[in-house]
Amino acid sequence: MLQQLRDKSKSFVSSTLLILLVFSFGIWGIGDIFRGGFSKDWVVKVGDAKLSASVLKREFENEVTQMRGLLGPDFTNQKAKEMGLLERSIDKLVALTTVNLETNRLGYNIPKTEIIRTLETTPQLRNPDGTFNKQMFGQLLATQGMNEAMFIDAQKQIAARNIIVRSLSAATTTPDLLVNDIAAGYAQKRVAETILVNPKSINIAPTTDEAILKKYYDEDKDNYKAQETRSFDVLTLTPQDASKDVHVSAEDAQKFYDEHKAEYEIPEKRTLLQVVVSDEAKAKDIATNANPSTLKSVAKSNGEDAVAIDDITRNDLPPEYGEAVYAAPIGKLSGPVQSNLGWHVFVVQKVTPMKSKTFAEAKDQLIEQMKKDQAAEHMVQIANKVDDMLAANKPLQEIASAHGLVVAKFENLDKSGDNAKIEIPFKNEVLKAAFQYNEGESSPLLESKSGGYALVHINKVTPSHVLEFDAVKDRVKQDWVQHEKVKKAIETAEAISKTLKEGKPLSSITGEGLAKKTSSPIMVDEKTQKDIPREAMAPLFDLKKGDVAVVTTADGTLVIRVKDIIAGHADEIEVRKKQLKSKLEQEAVATHLDAYTAALRQAYPVEMDKAGLDRLIGTNDSAM
Asked: Which label site among 26, 134, 299, 428 has the fewest CB atoms less than 10 Å from its CB?
């Protein structure tokens, strides 16, 4: 999967620029690129423009978050770097920056009036009556962390950039002849005859000839390497350790309760049925013609919905509306009242009075929370003292004894830590540190996201090394047998291939453990079929009728012969042509953009602060 993701990332720069073709809301979600992104503390320089560490870090973290949703919570920053997500983030920002610099060089300047006109006609920012929704525009600015001037400048930059991008894509067309040929190929179906030679069905007697085994071992020594292991001590500081000396009396709890009594009040809540409309006249009409029992039906007759809101507090409502709701009597139709959401007509259906939790009711929970809070403060104090002793080069055991902490010993652990005999505290952080520092060194005090601290001292490093033949002899015997089975399967498949190429029928092939099959008609992009393994689909559609190929699959060696080629139906070809024309033109645009951004990188040289990049990403693994 990682390789597939790497392959997909290659066309990412051109895809990013294609996305920017959407003018009206090209700014959604990329506000960080346009604010605080240029700084003296740069990590990437593009021409005269400097990209700050913060904007690159945000972009990289966005990429990691998306991939973590796909690959799971154990997808770390280090894995992301290995599969090229850091380079991908840099490429995206560099591509945007180079095009921005080029638009500046060309002197493109989009009038502010044009940006405002476009905003006012953008569907997402219009009221039902077609007028500009200033409140929604304000919410957009808030989500982007921008003021209006910053937003307009960013939109001007996007509009100028899109002039270039559109000019590269406007003239892109795909010849109909090419589309027709490719569509016919996609609509075509093929029937295959297959014979699977499964190595598991082949009998190979184990060898006792040590010379053969030793030769096999010598030819593949890297397969018999022991992983690097580390022996280390771990000092841990947990909230439980810090809570040993924490005591909260009933008197302390009573004092805290008295000082924070308002926090133990459950506010009044109200349940209401409301209609919200943008037009005051319609709201008045609904209020005039409805009563508490008919509000739903009257709203519906006016093309609106009455919505029930359960147990809402005053603070959950817009201020002017909340004041009206909490002044309204129960069971009476009220309104219209205006808020930033529109005009409200409502009826209060239920009132849940404010309730104060007494000290007796809150006592146990309060004491427990006070203990946790004080333990957290005490833990930080202990951590600071541990840091001081560490700076003074005090031994780990002395640091532990001074603060009543425990030191756990781990021997010969590999990077996974799965061979540990006892549970590894703060496993991700500890293992990372254990394999980051040299023998005899200690890590700094590590803070865990799960709460707590750890300190790791490396006692011994055993490098990865090839194991001696005698130590892995039994494994070599098993591997040799498997190797011979695969070898025999390939030889058998090649012999079958030769026979099929002579035109012999499938029924003429005999032998133990052979799985023969004739597939149903299959299209090249058919994903639900199970007759042909994925590895054999490309060879199947490269062959002519009667041709034979041998393909290695996960289940063994497959011999495949094309029995029949069925031309696609005219209707299917037409469907394919429509799909392909758009796809091929998009790919052509992407090719143009790739070439263009490559040229811009030559015009605006890119310089990177490698040490800054390592500090930015390498020291902050978000999977810790």
From this structure: 134
